[in-house]
Design a protein that fits this description.
Length: 384
């Protein structure tokens, strides 16, 4: 059995490399990866020259302030290429994807969308429902999307939750190298009071992350007799404003702004050193990154304003949820977590490992994607 499969994206973010390499190992499915090279946002993409996979490159044409996309060459490759299965990014604002998916089905190919799908209540939901129905099946990031699509009439048997992943194998190797002595050493280098609990945020320092709420909660914790340290890893337009806010609240002696860091070995120690990762706005890849190194996550409780990875957080085990927008709730949640779990750090760490090791890794993703392909593929008959 050799199933020729095309995976077509507008561009491949760098963090996708591990799952693409895992898919390329399959002996039953031959994968071709097709994409443009010009993203519409500031994001690191895969170096297609350095990483030797079966790439094909097409041209991205972004329209209306980079909101709509036309991929020149996508339709021809999907329809006339020698593929049994076409997997497209489920991005309804890629106009060429509408035509490519419909014409691929008419030509007898299996069409799957890899999609966030519907995670919020929006006026555009009807458009998205129409778009997703172009595919035979959907590869979803989480169960919340599956639940929402079920309410819109989609068949559960045609939806496959494949979750998300980072560079799991490399991170696992680094995780095994961490020692208690290394983590203590990191705390001493970063903070004047290394015995305080450490609250971590890792990601872009933007207004959507609501980091002012974290600083306000930190001030309240100090006022309640629970001094904490804060570590910000990342950069962004809010950095100066956040620095000034910490200064106003006399929190700078307890705060470190580390800036951007792409050294995964260093990040492993920094994340593992923290007692809890806080994301007052939505949480996405940050949740997976933190849990991978055994650090629980606190974020808000509104699933309609979250990224799919919030599902990796189990209340009271791998983190907690607070009432969205409430500094009082955030403060109380952090206080409660630290009070209950300061003496259970190793237990919490293992629970965090478990969810990533089980679901949020390339091996699990590749297995579930193969399950989806084999559900529809037949060498004798291909459903329209």
């Amino acid at each position: 059995m050799n199933i020729n499969t095309l995976i077509a994206y507008p561009y491949f973010p760098h963090y996708r490399l591990a799952i693409l390499k895992e898919l390329a190992k399959d002996r039953d499915i031959s994968y071709t990866f097709l994409a443009g090279t010009t993203p519409n946002i500031d994001i690191k993409t895969i170096d297609l020259v350095e990483n030797k996979l079966n790439w094909k490159i097409i041209e991205n044409i972004w329209l209306f302030d980079h909101k709509l996309l036309w991929q020149r060459g996508l339709i021809q490759e999907c329809v006339f290429g020698d593929y049994d299965v076409v997997i497209l990014l489920g991005y309804p604002y890629a106009l060429s994807t509408w035509f490519a998916s419909l014409l691929s089905r008419l030509s007898g190919k299996i069409v799957l969308f890899w999609a966030h799908a519907i995670v919020r209540n929006q006026k555009r939901d009807k458009l998205k429902v129409l778009f997703y129905k172009l595919a035979h099946g959907l590869l979803l990031y989480g169960n919340w999307a599956k639940q929402n699509l079920t309410r819109h009439g989609f068949n559960q048997a045609e939806m496959f939750v494949v979750y998300n992943s980072l560079d799991y194998d490399h991170q696992l190797h680094l995780r095994k190298l961490l020692t208690p002595e290394k983590l203590i050493s990191e705390k001493k280098m970063l903070f004047n009071n290394p015995g305080n609990p450490v609250l971590l945020f890792i990601g872009r320092l933007t207004s959507s992350k609501r980091l002012n709420q974290l600083i306000a909660a930190c001030e309240k914790l100090h006022g309640r007799g629970m001094p904490v340290n804060m570590l910000f890893i990342g950069d962004g337009e809010e950095r100066r404003k956040l620095h000034n806010l910490c200064d106003q609240k006399n929190l700078l002696p307890y705060t470190t702004f580390l800036g951007e860091c792409y050294d995964e070995q260093k990040l492993a120690a920094l994340i593992a050193m923290a007692d809890v990762c806080i994301s007052p706005g939505n949480v996405g890849l940050t949740a997976m990154h933190s849990l991978m190194y055994g650090t629980p996550v606190i974020t808000h409780n509104n699933p309609f304003d979250q990224m799919p990875e919030f599902e990796a957080i189990t209340q009271g085990e791998t983190g907690m949820f607070f009432e969205q927008g409430s500094v009082e709730s955030l403060t109380e949640t952090i206080y409660t977590w630290l009070q209950l779990n300061q003496n259970k750090r190793d237990q919490i760490r293992n629970k965090c490992y478990k969810i990533i090791d089980k679901y949020y890794n390339p091996a699990f993703q590749a297995k579930e994607i193969k399950v989806a392909i084999l559900k529809y593929y037949s060498p004798r008959k291909k459903d329209l």
